[in-house]
Amino acid sequence: VLYEENPEASRRSNVAGKVPLGVKGKSLRILVTGGAGFVGSHLVDRLIGRGDSVIVVDNFFTGRKENLVHHFGDPRFELIRHDVVEPILLEVDQIYHLACPASPVHYKFNPVKTIKTNVVGTLNMLGLAKRVGARFLLTSTSEVYGDPLQHPQVETYWGNVNPIGVRSCYDEGKRTAETLTMDYHRGLGIEVRIARIFNTYGPRMCIDDGRVVSNFVAQALRKEPLTVYGDGKQTRSFQYVSDLVEGLMRLMEGDHVGPFNLGNPGEFTMLELAEVVQETIDPNAKIEFRPNTEDDPHKRKPDISKAKQLLGWEPTVSLRKGLPLMVSDFRQRIFGEQKMGGA
Ligand code: NAD
Ligand code: UDP
Ligand code: UDP
Predict the structure, then answer these.
(1) Which residues form the NAD(P)-binding domain (predicted)?
(2) Which positions are catalytic?
(3) Interface predicted TM-score (ipTM) of this complex, two decimals
(4) Residue 26, Cα to own-chain centre: how many angstroms?
(5) Ligand 3 pocket check for 215: Cβ under 6 Å
């Protein structure tokens, strides 16, 4: 019996082969756009581990094959080099739409491309969801709140975003992506989910993406000073990647559209973060102050009551527990690369 023609048979053979079945005992076909990136690759690990078939679509702008290489050769895994700004035809049950540069350095590199990815890329993936009747999850961002005038941020807050600033390609791009998602839902009956992700860190982050956690960790390991922008009193909340992936999967499988804040409510100033990095890596690491970037939000902290109540979700990994896991990955990559380069 051919695999494609008889899904029941393939399900039975999964049981026989002791491959775990997907959620609710059913194996799903899942598209993860941006799956070669930091968050996407951890999500793929969980989905494959659960017994689903996964197609990753990624243009490798910031993603890397190394993040997925452990799945190569698995018949339930497929990697397609493709830019979501171009249409694509695939048959899937669910779409996790992550494709988009996420760090300020990367999204400012080509702002027009960032907008196209958010708008045209999201439109294409919604069109695909419509064509095949798939459920669609958008990974939006806490940046939709801009430089927030409400603290902590609740999902009902509409935000304070500069439409013409250097961060707008990302902030406004994601806001438009949310609008498109809701209009496909309301107008065309597409099943959608929206996550607003707050700053997330962990293994496989790009080492030189300019984000504060990757900068501080790489700097401390390389015995360089930690660069604190501005007075270092601005705040962020840092979520470990496994907590985020759990939240995304609960959101996809649950009955609620959202938007849902997914983040760790623990709030740190950048100076406090520098101290945690010093404690974890090198107590003698120096701190160097640099001028801050334009439009930098002063504070950010999620109110996660809605996700707690409706998804039964909350983060379980504190910064002090999660940071060492990222440090060992960075240590291996930074010093491994140097050895290879020097050989
Ligand atoms: P990442 O840069 O590691 O991953 C993004 C992936 O998308 C990369 O693999 C990249 O190559 C791919 N990509 C970019 N443009 C594409 C295009 N046009 N076509 C196909 N692929 C494309 O970033 P991440 O941290 O893993 O972020 C994943 C998603 O989560 C993004 O949508 C981001 O906006 C969102 N998010 C992340 C954070 C965070 O702190 N990490 C916070 C808020 C929102
Ligand atoms: N699209 C896609 N894959 C599909 C279906 C649609 O990439 O399987 C793209 C399509 O090319 C279009 C977008 O998604 O640019 C929106 O599609 P929709 O059918 O909603 O709108 P229309 O094509 O009618 O403008
Ligand atoms: N930041 C910093 N030093 C760095 C990189 C960033 O002090 O080396 C600050 C930055 O000004 C911002 C905060 O850290 O206030 C978070 O920046 P990041 O780029 O990580 O994320 P986002 O601004 O998107 O929340």
Answers:
(1) 31-324
(2) 170
(3) 0.97
(4) 25
(5) yes
